[in-house]
Amino acid sequence: MSRTWGRTLRRLPWWLAAAALAAGCLLWIYPFLWMVSASLKTSAEVFTQGLDLLPASPAWDNYERAWVAAEFGKYLLNTVIVTVSTVVIVVVRCAMAGYVLARHEFRGRKVVMGVLVATLFVPAGYTIIPLVDLTQRLGLLNSLTGMILAMSGGANVAAILLYVGYFRGIPKELTESALIDGAGFATVFFRIMLPLAKPVTATVTVLTFLSTWNAFFLPLVFTFSRPDLRTVSVGMLAFVGENTTDWSGMAAAATISLLPVVALFIVLQRYFVEGIAGAVKS
Amino acid sequence: MTVALPPRRAPGAAHSTAYVWLFLAPTVLLCGAFTLYPIIGSYVYSLTDWNGFDASPSFIGVANYREVLADPMFWSSFRLTLTFMVFAVPLQVLATLLVAIVLNSPRMPLRKLFRTALFLPVVTTTAIIGVVMQFVFDPASGPVNLALREIGLVTDGIDFLGQSSTALGTTIAVYVWKWFGITLVYWLAALQTVPNEVYEAARLDGAGGLATLRHITMPLLKPFLVIITLLSIEASLQVFDLVLTMTGGGPFYSTEVIEVYIYRWAFAATIPRLGFASAAAVLFGLFIGLVGLLQLAAIRATRKTRSTA
Question: Rounded to whole angstroms, how far apart are CA atoms A57 and A39?
Fold first, then answer.
């Protein structure tokens, strides 16, 4: 009895710390709770109910207004199209590049690696003007295709280096025996190497998804003259520019836009955290 | 099955060189067009007078640079960018370290849940957070001001984003909140590299919690401090999404960081000045590049100390 008491006493500071942290975390995610709550209130309730988070009855018509009138249904579809295409292109091209850089000696290898590393830190604000100019001259400025290509053409050095590191660690015998069996270059890559690299692919997918879904600068300047091609982040800014008083509509639109990425995070949390922690470890 | 295969090296090698470049082609083409060309293009465009993407640029030499460097608004935005960094980075790096040390202890209850909650803002879209925060900090009905009034701290709402004196501070606070989780995860990864045996040895030698922290954990974390600080500096220089959606650079340009300055001249002005904006962008790019070089040098230095240790 006294033993368990001692243990509880020793644990007490930890439980106090946990209680303090719990309160802090609740405050931390309060903006999200407030947002979801406001999206379910009527416009009048948002202003009169103040800090009370629960509406009298959920006002689902806010979502209808955001989805149809504010066109967030369309923006969401645009965002999904751009994100999925970009993720597929980035994963495949980074895996291919990482594979040949890791396992093949060829002339120009060092140059390619050097240029890639040199582009590691290029801020968006820095390259946006030539980027828009080039896309316009290609006739792709006001199109989702242009947006997808421009977003897939970021340096993605980290992704390539992750693949390089992984492919380098795979024993040579594995590919050699396949080559003896008559498998070609492409077969070895797509049938053997790429499936083996699943952990890296998961990390690259999650990180690319995150950066593309959350992109703002590029979609903003790519859709100035085509409002129907807006992604959710651009649509959000336009929405509050036009409806400054529709708080519940704003909250519903924001909830629609954030829900997919938050849901994905909760399901695949491990990959998000490991992918980001990798930046420090390597 | 010990039949020696005839050496097929020569034709195979030529064959595979073609494949190597075929595999590199998408990366070379896409990065070449959308990363490399813009980097080089910025320099060329910065030497031109160019009033819109439909107009044709005309060469004017370094006049844009002279004008940018003489523009007090450019220096104001440069100073704001640096102020943002100077306040955001130490706050973020040190506060996350404290929380990470607490969350790293296996005796801490519910630590996974806390990490998830603190990390949540990181995955959300910055531009949307910026817009939502406009409402959260609203002087009349925003929850922050309602709460302040409820506890009796203020009688009238504070217009956090509407006055020059508080707009930058509020933006920095939201920035730190938004990216806190990412630095926290960096620190947790760093703490994981300290092997458990080290702690056990310290405990057997009679070191208490604080002594362990001071003499064992901290010295081992030093190389990570360099990397994490530099990563945070790099990130704090790129705050376009948050600033544009929260304040638009205002009020009275009090939050106009360099990226917003460039954006204003290139995309938001009635007569865009793309050459001028490019010159500002090149200067900003050189500054970021400098920080990047510093980062690589620091990482190399810490690698050396780790391998000799």
Answer: 12
